[in-house]
Amino acid sequence: MLQRLSISNYAIIDSLDIDLANNLNIITGETGAGKSIIVGALGLILGERADSSVLNNSDREKKCIVEGIFQAGSTKPVKRFLEQHDLDADDELVVRREIGSNGKSRAFINDTPVNLGQLQTLSSLLVDMHQQFDTLEIGDSDFQREVIDALAGNEKKLSAYQQLYRQWASLTQECDELKSRKQQFEREADYNRFQYTELEEAGFRENEIEDTDAELKLMSHSENIKSALNRVSYELEENEDPLVAKIKSMISQLHSVQDYHADLAAVTERLQSVQIELRDIAGEISRISDHVIYDPEKIELLNERLSLGYKLLKKHGVQTTAELLDIQKQLNEKLQAVSNIDEQIRQKEERANMLKTQAVGIAHELHAARIKQVRPFEEKVNTLLAQVGMPNARLKVEIVLVENPDAYGLDRIEFLFNANLPKSKGADKNNTALFQPVRKVASGGELSRLMLCIKSLVAQSMDMPTLIFDEIDTGISGEAARQVGNILKGLAKSRQVICITHQPQIAGKADTHFLVYKENVKDQVKTNIRRLSNEERITTIARMLSGEKPTAAALENAKEMVGSD
User: Fold this and answer.
1) Which among 119-128, 334-343, 378-387, 447-456 has the top mean pLDDT?
2) Phi, psi of 443, deg, nearest 5
3) Is the N or the C terminus of the chain less surrounded, counting Cβ atoms within 10 Å?
4) pLDDT at residue 545 above 80?
5) Closest Cα partner for 101 from 65, 48, 66, 64?
């Protein structure tokens, strides 16, 4: 419920506050008084776009601020929204919109900044606003289906269906992706098999290319290596005066005099270590030399192996044997996947078909429940249409079973309408050919009244929030206007209704009556609003009946309208 609406620096409004009642709030005023301006300001906190043109022309340096205080924070959808967006979940909601002089807009929920999309989502849970010529909602297939489902009490059944539908749709998508992947695998299978066979026949072991390259370098330089090793070995042990023997002689000489100097023992010991190390090096050189063998046949084989390795590395754009072996592994996995994917597809299709069968079963139950509501709904709406001044208008609901299920079942639902059915006795008022989709044929005024009739029937079932009707009375008067007032009054028994009207018959049904008026403030015209007392209501309604100076009869008539509740 919208408890309070505050507007400042908007169009020709300096500042005003409206404290609204929780039942039927009627807003009246002369044409041009500013009723539509108030609706426009309300639209800002409902998420409509705006720019600096909405600023008050008398002071464009100030921000335009529109604030609404709602009593709705404890309702489940609103509470869920607040929790999902980490917003303070109080029973009282403060929604504010600010428009700067540069046109920049900011929105707040309980003083927390939010984006326009979040504001629009929340506002749809708080307020249902229907303006004249607003043809989108009633012509929308989702709204039409929601109406029928609300009347049929399909909420739980639809929820169960949608859970199955989502699982089925997800599995179907997975199957399609697997089939697409299978086609891709099959297109690449021959090439992948050729590449895998080539690598498998090559049979490279881990690090083989690198090891082969190293071995080939060794064998290619074996003669130089062996010659260098032999020279070193000769100098160490085989020369006429070998280095190892020289060091041994040096050690003997130091031994003879080491008793005469304290440091000579340590030096002698170090020379002994050098002698041992050189003898060990000589042995290692000899061993290495024995293993360095020049083998032309093996060199040829290594060259062939290395050439194959380099060719495959280049072909696959890699640098190492490990990367080549990894490609071989990947190719093998792709070839294996082709054989495994059929089984995956079979299992998923089996599960998807089972889910689809279950979902379609519930979809037929939904269809039956919807069909059951069609005739009673048509009769009630058409009865109400006659009451609101459209005696020849008829609404017809067309529900057609389709082959493929969607997120809401197997039904295509369309509201058909004819505002002026033939009056001849032979005319078949059930003939579908006489009807057209409501979005195509209904005028703004007809749509407004049709929407009122529909909403009055489903308001409880659809748990509608605050309802706002802007000039729903276009094109009616007299008894039709009185009936519209009765419908609004009935709606307001269980929810807040705000209605802007020019009709005294509707204004007479108000629980709370507001008057929008213009006044001169410092030589400038400003819009203002005030709540009327019972006496002021009678006078205002009398003026709506007979003009600025109401007659005694008009006053009596107005008194009767106000007191008829």
Assistant:
1) 378-387
2) -80, 175
3) C
4) yes
5) 64
